Amino acid sequence: MEQRPLVVRCGAMGDMVILLSLIEALRRRFGQPVDVITSGGWSRPLLQGQPGVGRIHVVGSRKTPFLFSTEQRQVIAGLRGEGPRPTWVCDTGHWPIRLLHRAGFGNEWIAVAVKDCRILPDEHHVDRWLRFAQCAPRAVGSAAAPLGDVADLRSPPLHVLPAWRDDLEQWLRAKGIRDEPLYLVQAGNKRTMRWWAPKSRDTNTKYWPEDRWAAVIRTMLAGDATARVILLGVPAEAALNDDITRLAGSDRVLNAARELPIPRLVALQARAAGMVSTDTGPAHSAGAVDCPLVVLFGEAKVARYAPRSPSGRLEVLVGPEGHRPRMQGITVADVESAWRRLSLRL
């Protein structure tokens, strides 16, 4: 089978980390790199250069009507030039099918997760995508070889590229950091940083108060007089990190939210001794590169969305039932105990 498989997935960062398991499974099955249709400017730096990933087609905003979307028209033109090939659609809604039809793909070339691989109760999305890789569009039929053992893909295969490591080392040297143990903290997330709503609103199930983060950081630093804590995030989360840094009251805390493109973030996670995070995208990349991890969950289903790591050095905390919002039911002592249980990478 010489045709390159195609996967459609427009998700958040954690979704795309998880998708790497499906991509690698399809690469093994078909012996070809897997092309990806996705959205968001950050998808390319995460996926580009990963083993098994072929061409990356970025459609831009899916809400933009086709006639007004230069990106969608460019993607369709590229797909038409290559012709139909086996396609796995991981997204819901009608837009992916419409886009593929415009590119000349008939339904016989398309496997759709919502009908061909429905998620099972309490099934993790990694395991679902590995089942989905066993499916094939009708046009492929028996021509596709069966997929062999994929137990090693139950943790997403996110690789740290050499250029990422080189960039990180230059950045660390510029910050005066050499061989010190690095502890990472991801306090922010998209839900918490909505500017039009209070962070502590009852509907924000991913907010954990700044003073609690500061208390955990002080505990981290107390355990090793040489360690540094680096607060992660995107620029929109920098002000939140500034507040936490001020409350922590230590010059060994660095707010890096304005300086972490995705390749540098992932390389930093691969270098760090451990990390504490809310349930958000960087928790998934940390797990995938085997950074020891404590992750705080709100109301998301842990069985379905928990990060996966090769070694299983992972502590998942969930607030008590009936506490609204549940993440705020997690205490500082809970996080400190979980941190002490981790086998840190020192």
What secondary-structure arrangement, pairings included, does this model have?
Blueprint: E1 6-8, H1 13-30, E2 34-38, H2 43-47, E3 53-58, H3 70-82, E4 87-89, H4 95-102, E5 110-112, H5 113-116, H6 125-132, H7 162-174, E6 182-186, H8 210-222, E7 228-231, H9 238-248, E8 253-255, H10 262-271, E9 274-278, H11 281-288, E10 293-297, H12 302-305, E11 314-318, H13 332-341
Parallel strand pairs: 1-2, 1-4, 2-3, 4-5, 6-7, 6-9, 7-8, 9-10, 10-11
Helix pairs in contact: 1-6, 1-11, 7-10, 8-9, 8-13
Molecular structure report:
- Helix 1 (13-30) packs parallel to helix 6 (125-132) and helix 8 (210-222) crosses helix 9 (238-248).
- The strands form two sheets. Strands 8-7-6-9-10-11 form a six-stranded parallel beta sheet, sandwiched between helices. The chain has a five-stranded parallel beta sheet with strand order 3-2-1-4-5, sandwiched between helices.
- Strand 4 (87-89), helix 4 and strand 5 form a beta-alpha-beta unit.
- Helix content is 36%, strand content 14%.
- It contains 13 helices and eleven strands.
- The mean pLDDT is 92.
- It has helices spanning 13-30, 43-47, 70-82, 95-102, 113-116, 125-132, 162-174, 210-222, 238-248, 262-271, 281-288, 302-305, 332-341; strands at residues 6-8, 34-38, 53-58, 87-89, 110-112, 182-186, 228-231, 253-255, 274-278, 293-297, 314-318.
- The protein has two domains: 6-154, Glycogen Phosphorylase B (Rossmann fold, 3-Layer(aba) Sandwich), CATH 3.40.50; 162-341, Rossmann fold (3-Layer(aba) Sandwich).
